[in-house]
């Protein structure tokens, strides 16, 4: 299965890890009270950790023991890196070499379209660069999380935490931010620190770096560090599309949230201009998939919730710790619409042509994403009787592995928890990987049917 269908192998390992974490989290040693955690809650937490979502049906600061917190932290690290990428890193560490099979395995984790036949090597990261990418994944994970920990630690020490307690929680928050998970181990959440702009800025930077994706971090490293003595003097199309689209969405969300919540006294309306602009910008970054919110979505206007729904549905960059349909998918769809409007036969961006097969995958990802969200929303609305805006927000947050919540997750019945857990699983596995696993083999026909065009539009 590893050789014939890495996507199916990834699904199998991913699901097996969730089952293992569910069993471990349900054990008495994982809870602070020493009692068995109910199956629905243990499964929901395991899926939320492995899928780096951050939604929870339990109080993360009081329910879990130290062992439980270690399990959750390990889960979000595994989920953030990716199953196949982690396996390739471990294999490279043990064998000190990276063969073609391992390169293809890691390449399919960063780009499932590589599993097709006759795939062009005009990729964001070539097979010859996979070793460097894996090294960049491991290095960036360690370096960025340690830097974030060092920056967060003084804040928690100043808040009155003991050194070891502050160090553990700082690393927990750093990992939660960089992997875009959104779990908060502090009692009271981030509420006591909402006025500490330095702390919130560090968290926002960690979320942003995790959301742009490891290939983009790798490309930026090569561009900045290797500019003087290597040939990597040009940023690739994937990097430009990811950074450009991400910045556009962050600015759009910043302006939209601040404008729509300007007069809402329950959220930003009671704050001064500086606080309003900072908090709205911070919340816009959290919609990338961060989930470490400082404004209660349940108090927001319905119009604001809809804007955040759209941003969470898009998510972050491909091969990142973020979820959603990914910013490059949105960019390709808009480029296709622009090319059609201008009468171009090919999609173009930054003096490069994008093949039509990328558009087919983008359309498939979008349609599958919409389908998953609609099915889950209908099921939860029927189970809970809650209004559409509340249910849709929770479902898209789960699909986009974001973690922002209106509080619906905590009040769900067991059946609703299973539905939302399945939504998180589908969102993290990725619609492209899911489609590649279902249709692992490409079939060729020796004939073509007669052409007939339906009316569209």
Automatic annotation (TrEMBL):
The chain crosses the membrane at residues 36-58, 70-94, 130-154, 198-221, 241-260, 310-337, 358-383, 418-440. It is found in: Cell membrane. Coiled coil: none annotated. It is a multi-pass membrane protein. The keyword Ion transport applies. GO terms for molecular function: monoatomic cation transmembrane transporter activity. GO terms for biological process: metal ion transport. GO terms for cellular component: plasma membrane. Pfam families: TrkH (PF02386). Its main location: membrane. InterPro entries: Cat_transpt. Keywords: Cell membrane, Ion transport, Membrane, Transmembrane, Transmembrane helix, Transport. This is TrkH family potassium uptake protein. It comes from Leucobacter insecticola.
């Amino acid at each position: 299965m590893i050789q014939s269908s890495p996507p199916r192998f990834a699904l199998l390992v991913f699901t097996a890890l969730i089952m293992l974490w569910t069993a471990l989290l349900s054990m008495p040693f994982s809870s602070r009270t020493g009692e068995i955690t109910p199956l629905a809650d243990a499964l929901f937490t395991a899926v939320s950790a492995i899928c780096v979502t951050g939604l929870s049906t339990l109080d993360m600061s009081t329910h879990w023991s130290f062992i439980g917190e270690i399990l959750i932290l390990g889960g979000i690290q595994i989920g953030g890196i990716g199953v196949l990428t982690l396996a390739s890193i471990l294999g490279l560490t043990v064998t000190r070499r990276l063969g073609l099979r391992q390169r293809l395995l890691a390449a399919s984790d960063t780009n499932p379209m590589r599993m097709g036949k006759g795939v062009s090597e005009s990729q964001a990261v070539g097979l010859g660069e996979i070793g460097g990418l894996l090294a960049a994944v491991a290095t960036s994970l360690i370096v960025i999380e340690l830097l974030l920990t060092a920056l967060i630690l003084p804040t928690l020490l100043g808040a009155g935490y003991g050194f070891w307690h502050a160090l553990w929680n700082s690393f927990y928050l750093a990992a939660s931010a960089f992997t875009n998970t959104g779990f908060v181990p502090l009692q009271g959440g981030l509420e006591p620190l909402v006025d500490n702009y330095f702390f919130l800025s560090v968290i926002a930077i960690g979320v942003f770096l995790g959301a742009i994706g490891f290939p983009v971090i790798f490309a930026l490293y090569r561009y900045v560090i290797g500019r003087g003595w290597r040939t990597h003097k040009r940023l690739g199309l994937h990097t430009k599309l990811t950074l450009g689209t991400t910045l556009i969405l962050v600015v759009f969300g910043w302006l939209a949230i601040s404008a729509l919540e300007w007069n809402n006294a329950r959220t930003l309306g009671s704050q001064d201009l500086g606080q309003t602009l900072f908090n709205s910008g911070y919340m816009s970054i959290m919609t990338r998939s961060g989930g470490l919110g400082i404004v209660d979505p349940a108090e927001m206007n319905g119009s604001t919730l809809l804007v955040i729904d759209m941003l969470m549905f898009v998510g972050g960059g491909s091969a990142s710790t973020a979820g959603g349909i990914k910013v490059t998918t949105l960019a390709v769809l808009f480029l296709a619409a622009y090319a059609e409007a201008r009468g171009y036969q090919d999609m173009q961006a930054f003096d490069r042509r994008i093949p039509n097969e990328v558009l087919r995958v983008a359309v498939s990802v979008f349609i599958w994403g919409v389908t998953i969200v609609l099915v889950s929303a209908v099921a939860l609305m029927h189970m809970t009787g809650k209004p559409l805006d509340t249910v849709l927000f929770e479902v898209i947050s789960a699909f986009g592995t974001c973690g922002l919540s209106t509080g619906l997750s905590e009040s769900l019945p067991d059946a609703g928890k299973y539905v939302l857990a399945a939504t998180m699983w589908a969102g993290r596995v990725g619609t492209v990987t899911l489609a590649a696993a279902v249709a692992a083999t490409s079939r060729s026909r020796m004939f073509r049917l007669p052409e007939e065009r339906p009316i569209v539009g």
